[in-house]
């Protein structure tokens, strides 16, 4: 099966650092507004996905949720979670005090990949 999300080595290192400090994590990527579709990292349970939001996979064992409307736009794309130096537009994410910000790179799935994608979990 083809995963819908992966992470760079830099993102993985930061995730482990955040997990050591905060415990279990979760990610949520909203559809816009003040955070500008920046992926946000929270302590698990620190954010509640809305009805029909999509959990597209796990990043280092932690759920990565996508806003239901944004997922409809990006459902044919692979996500790669990365991290950059600097502050994202929202500042609500756990990496912000470290002077870091998560970012997603996208690429379209190939036709072969589309036939073998892992299932999406919907929040009901």
Automatic annotation (TrEMBL):
InterPro entries, A to Z: DUF779
Taxon lineage: Bacteria, Pseudomonadati, Bacteroidota, Sphingobacteriia, Sphingobacteriales
Pfam families in alphabetical order: DUF779
The protein's name in its UniProt record: UDP-glucose 4-epimerase
Species assigned in the record: Sphingobacterium wenxiniae
